[in-house]
Each structure stands twice: as C-alpha cells, then as structure tokens.
Amino acid sequence: MTQRIRVFATCDIGDALNILRQKGYDLEVYPQPEAPPKALIVEKVKSGVQGLITTLRDSIDAEVFAAGKGTLRVVSQLAVGFDNINRADANKYKIPFTNTADVLTEATAEFAFFLMGALARKLWPAEHLTRDNQWGYWHPFLPFLGDEVTGKTVAVIGTGRIGLAMIKKCAGFDMDILCYDPAYENREYIQAIQETMDLRFERGISRDKTMIRYTTLDDCLKSADFISLHVPLQRPGEGSNPTYHLINESTLRSMKPTAMLINTSRGPVVDETALARALRENWIAGAALDVYENEPLPADSPLRDPGLADRCRLLPHFASAGRITRLSSDPEKGMAGRCVQGLIDVIEGNYGGDITKMPYVVNKEAFAK
Ligand code: GLV
C-alpha cells in the first residue's frame, strides 16, 4: 500500500482544502483561529509531513526547514508576501515554497484606493458625527471638510503588480500619478496609462489633462498629495533594495503638510513611532494603515492615540479580505485555490517535475540546473 501524502495546514483556509482530501491526502489542520506556536510547526514537520500550508503569521526559518530535512517537500503560503519565510534557509535546504501572487492584486489595490478615499473624505469622523448624534445642522464647512481625491497627485511607491493595479484605479479618478520603484520599472505600462489619460482628455471624458511618470522617491514625497506604499518588505541585508523604515522621520518630514500616507504593503516599511509623531505634530495630514510593525496592533501602539483618530485610519490587515480573493478554490481566482495548487504541483511533480517551471514556486533559483 502506498503511503498517503501528509500535509499540515497551520490554518483553516476553507473549502479548497477539500481538493487535498478528495485526492486522499492525509490532511491535518490546526483548529484554532490564532497561529500555532512555532514549536508545534516544528514538531509537525519533524513528524514527517511532506506539505506545509502556512500564512504570513508563521515564521518559517532554518529551524523548520532543518526539521523537515529529507521529508518536507513544499511550503505553500497563503499570501503574496513571504517575508515570514527565510528564502536563504529554504534554498539551503532545497525546499521550494509557493505564494499566491496575482489573485489578490485587484482586491489589495482597490482596498488601498478605498482607504485613500475614506481618509481624504473623512468618512470615519463623518459617520461618527451622525452615529453620535452630533450632526446638529447642515453647514457649508462646519464642523470640518474633507479633501477630494479626484484631480490630486498620488505617488505610487512600488510598481509591481499591486502598484500597477493601484495606478490603473487612480487614473480612473483623473489623478496625476508619480511612480517610484528602486528595483522594477514597467515603463511600457506607464506609457499605456499616459495614452489612456490623453484619450480621456481628447474625448472630453476628463476635464483636465493628467500625467504619469517615473521619478525619484524624493520628488514623490515632496510633490504628492497621497503616498501609497506597494513595496515588499526587505530588511537591511536581505536584498539590494531595503524597504525597512523607508518611511521614517526624514522621509515624513519631506512630505507636504497636507499629504496623506496609505500603507497596504508591510508594516515595517513604516517607522510607526515616527509616523505617530508626524501625525501628532502635523508634519502630514493623515495616514491609513492596513499593516503594522507588530500584528495584531499592540494595545499600547502610539497610533491608537484618540487624539489622532480623525486622521489615522487603522484596519486589520484586511486588504485581500474579499470572499472570492481569499477563499475561491479556483487557482485563477482565490488565494486558497492557488495555495493548494502550488502544493499539488510540487508534491505530484507537475510540469514534468521541473520546479523552475512551476508558476507558484517563489525560490526557483534554488532548483536551476
Ligand atoms: C497579504 O498581506 C499578503 O501578502 O498576501
């Protein structure tokens, strides 16, 4: 009798797991909503599972890979980001890991866009006014006004998939767009957006001419009304373009006092202590965050200061949290489907068993002949 394939999932990722059950895999799912302790992951891997399904909450490093030496064949992560997985360690142990890029691109970009709008138009304080029965009269400017997004300048920091999708959405709102990416520029896409902007103006759809261009980080920070972050997290020493604390006291001070920051990338890209100070001392006008240096956001975070609540939106790492995006079993639509398919590709030797050809494997470099 052939041995059943054993898989441990650190989290229930929904119905897509039935694909593995139907294939006869021996699947164990950590039953709690919280992340399992690292020691449990190590124990499961040591016990010989061939597949490990992870989320961004799990720290997957040399200890885990060493525990799976000779048995663990794939780590399949339900996320596009993989800063919780030590790539060098994965490569050392020659264990492929997969991610769920693409399927969350539009959901994450639209969430960044909505955060920008909610912050600018003061949706949260305005709703509070109504709910708290403080809406005493209609008045042209009291008790406060918001700022329009339409016609403003947005800086998109990071022009990978999600940054480009954000650009597409901002272009639809007749925004001028500044782009910065230290590692990857897609000038063809930016040119196509400029052409659609020009056409919208020529055909009378947009009232004003708008523009998009790549520029320096400094120009983005100094010139933009909104700064939206779409870079991966790279801590110092992890790569040639570290993004850890890219937004810090000095970069915050160079923004306009009316500027607003949106972060849907990774928390440590922003120095939160500096950001809280920037908001308190009005170096910038607002921030909307979906990700944090420590998640969940600690009770004593300076960002929770009630004095900042009118200009600081705090969301619970929610950008990809659309039903289809998170849970669809279809690998072309859902993170869960893509996560499961990535695992199956490796375990079942799809693509002729050539890991470098498997679309969802991240660390292909470790398997190049
Ligand atoms: C979410 O943050 C992800 O990386 O998928």
Q: How is the quaternary structure best described? A: single chain
- The rounded distance between the terminal residues' Cα atoms is 34 Å
Major sheet, described briefly?
Answer: 7 strands, parallel
What is the number of helices?
13
- CATH architecture title of the largest domain: 3-Layer(aba) Sandwich
In the sheet with the most strands, the strands line up as: 8-7-6-9-10-11-12
Please name the CATH topology of the largest domain.
Rossmann fold
How many structural units, i.e. domains? 2
Annotate the secondary structure layout:
Blueprint: E1 6-9, H1 17-22, E2 26-29, H2 38-46, E3 51-54, H3 62-67, E4 74-77, H4 87-92, E5 97-98, H5 105-120, H6 123-131, E6 153-157, H7 161-171, E7 176-180, H8 187-202, E8 212-214, H9 217-223, E9 226-229, H10 249-253, E10 260-263, H11 272-280, E11 286-289, E12 312-314, H12 323-327, H13 335-347
Parallel strand pairs: 1-2, 1-3, 3-4, 4-5, 6-7, 6-9, 7-8, 9-10, 10-11, 11-12
Helix pairs in contact: 5-7, 7-8
Description:
The strands form two sheets. Strands 8-7-6-9-10-11-12 form a seven-stranded parallel β-sheet, sandwiched between helices. Helix 1 (17-22) links the parallel strand 1 (6-9) and strand 2 (26-29). The protein is an alpha/beta fold and 369 residues long. It is globular, with a radius of gyration of 22 Å. The protein has helices at 17-22, 38-46, 62-67, 87-92, 105-120, 123-131, 161-171, 187-202, 217-223, 249-253, 272-280, 323-327, 335-347; strands spanning 6-9, 26-29, 51-54, 74-77, 97-98, 153-157, 176-180, 212-214, 226-229, 260-263, 286-289, 312-314. It has two domains: 6-103 and 323-367, Rossmann fold, CATH 3.40.50.720; 112-314, Rossmann fold, CATH 3.40.50. The chain has 13 helices and twelve strands. 32% of the residues lie in helices and 12% in strands. Residues 56, 79-81, 104, 320 line the site of glyoxylic acid (GLV). Glyoxylic acid binds next to loops.
